[in-house]
Amino acid sequence: MNHPLPTGNFSCFVTGTDTEIGKTLVSAALLYILVQRGVQVAAMKPVAAGAEWRNGAWHNDDADMLAHSANVPLPPTLTTPYLLRTPAAPHIAAAIDKVVIDPAHIQQCFNHVRTQCEAVIVEGVGGFRVPLTDHFDTADLAQQLALPVILVAGLRLGCISQALLTVEAIQVRGLQLMGWVANTVDPHMGHVAANLQALAQRIPAPLLGHIPRLLEPSASVAASFIGTQDHTASNDA
Ligand SMILES: Nc1ncnc2c1ncn2[C@@H]1O[C@H](COP(=O)(O)OP(=O)(O)OP(=O)(O)O)[C@@H](O)[C@H]1O
Ligand SMILES: [Mg+2]
């Protein structure tokens, strides 16, 4: 049984147990829920690595999906101040692109975004300790933005330790863990219920949802498995 999301508007930093485990999908789902509630909500992916040139501009899939799911349109330079072209770990991509990631600039963009909306959903990069510079990582960014954190735990072998280490890293920084979402990244994972139970017993925050493997992952379908939304989705594979 899912715990409810906070009522009304809320902002959060979405992190995950790893890269490619559903942070963007969950962020988009949270945006969908807030938009349904009539909240003016913006999205940020402050650092994105991997961009394609399309229709006269550089595009990153995560930044595009988040922008598409939000209802406060803002310039991409504000919502993704560091759109790195190279698809690699951010500090490596930044070095290749000859870009210096400045945490103060991200903060300025975030502060500006905050003045334009009632809530903001910020997607992190990769796992929680992914470096952004030689001296600053994604965890530092969450701490700097002082947002409550939602952890996406990608359900696959090894996820229990990854999730618990991430929870420890969140706690040690004094950040609020608003909740966690289990996401079925490995459709062939065995003992899902036992893994979920092991996680729920050990994570001192509410389980906000369990997203099954979806045939057509979308913000609205993922949202139906988060909080106490209606479970109307029918394309659970
Ligand atoms: N429950 C699911 N069912 C089906 N496909 C999923 C599910 N969750 C995520 N996916 C797909 O897996 C891929 C990775 O998901 P997503 O982009 O949300 O991960 P991420 O953690 O944001 O990755 P990154 O570290 O690159 O930002 C996407 O193609 C997404 O549509
Ligand atoms: Mg993503």
Question: Could you characterize the architecture of this molecule?
Answer:
α1 (23-36) runs parallel beside α2 (61-69) and α7 runs parallel beside α8. The strands form 3 sheets. This protein has a 6-stranded parallel sheet, with helices on both faces. The model is unreliable at 230-237 (pLDDT under 50). The chain has helices at residues 23-36, 61-69, 76-79, 90-97, 103-116, 138-145, 159-172, 192-202, 219-223; strands spanning 12-16, 41-44, 47-49, 52-54, 57-59, 82-84, 119-123, 149-154, 177-183, 207-211. It has one domain (12-223): 3-Layer(aba) Sandwich (Rossmann fold). The protein is built from 9 helices and 10 strands. The structure holds adenosine-5'-triphosphate (ATP) and magnesium ion. Adenosine-5'-triphosphate is lined by residues 16, 19-25, 62, 126, 183-185, 211, 213-214, 217. Adenosine-5'-triphosphate binds at residues 16, 19-25, 62, 126, 183-185, 211, 213-214, 217.
Task: Please describe the topology of this protein.
Elements (H helix, E strand, L loop, with lengths): L11 E5 L6 H14 L4 E4 L2 E3 L2 E3 L2 E3 L1 H9 L6 H4 L2 E3 L5 H8 L5 H14 L2 E5 L14 H8 L3 E6 L4 H14 L4 E7 L8 H11 L4 E5 L7 H5 L14
Parallel strand pairs: 1-7, 1-8, 2-7, 3-6, 8-9, 9-10
Antiparallel strand pairs: 4-5
Helix pairs in contact: 1-2, 7-8
The chain binds adenosine-5'-triphosphate and magnesium ion.
